[in-house]
Design brief:
Number of helices: 9
Radius of gyration: 17 Å
Distance between the termini: 41 Å
Strand content: under 5%
């Protein structure tokens, strides 16, 4: 939940306060980068998307109607930029995923420590939609309702995509053994 201090910072940034916007960048850059890195599997692309996200956010901050929705709004921008970048690529390998992200997903889904070795490859084989909901839920910690709002799909679609993503990931990891 957004605290009052953060709401005040967002309000100031919406009214042109550059220092307030810089504060928002500091607070959310890690979340945006981790999300982009998980979606793209490439650190350089994730850095580029992170920067593009905050540039787009800066120029369209006035269109944000609800300060309490800033977190989901900024990740929606990042998600759209990631999807655009993925469309430009023919192959989406996950070779450079952060070790922390790899461990967090692996710890939840790997029954065998050897499965952790192929987590990046397994995630890379998921569809963009499945990877997106898995990362938003498992890595970023968003609940189903927040994810549905962020990516603009019904709640049931989020649940079914997350279930399918987990099953597909589990199958991929078992196949690689």
């Amino acid at each position: 939940m957004v605290d009052e201090e953060l709401k005040h910072i967002i309000h100031r940034a919406k009214h042109g306060d550059r220092e307030a916007f810089a504060n928002l960048v500091q607070r959310f850059k890690g979340h945006v980068y981790r999300y982009a890195a998980g979606m793209l599997g490439d650190r350089m692309d994730a850095e580029d998307v992170s920067q593009e996200t905050f540039i787009k956010a800066y120029y369209s901050l006035s269109s944000l109607d609800n300060e309490y929705a800033f977190s989901s709004w900024i990740l929606r921008i990042a998600g759209n930029l990631c999807k655009d970048r993925l469309k430009k690529r023919a192959n989406t390998p996950m070779q450079d995923m952060d070790e922390e992200q790899n461990e967090r997903i692996a710890d939840r889904h790997a029954a065998d420590p050897l499965e952790k070795l192929s987590m990046e490859e397994g995630l890379g084989r998921l569809s963009v939609g499945h990877r997106e909901v898995l990362l938003l839920h498992e890595i970023q910690g968003y609940n189903y309702e927040e994810i549905a709002e962020m990516i603009g799909v019904p709640l049931g679609t989020v649940k079914s995509r997350l279930f399918a993503a987990r099953m597909n990931l589990r199958n991929e990891l078992r196949r690689e053994d």
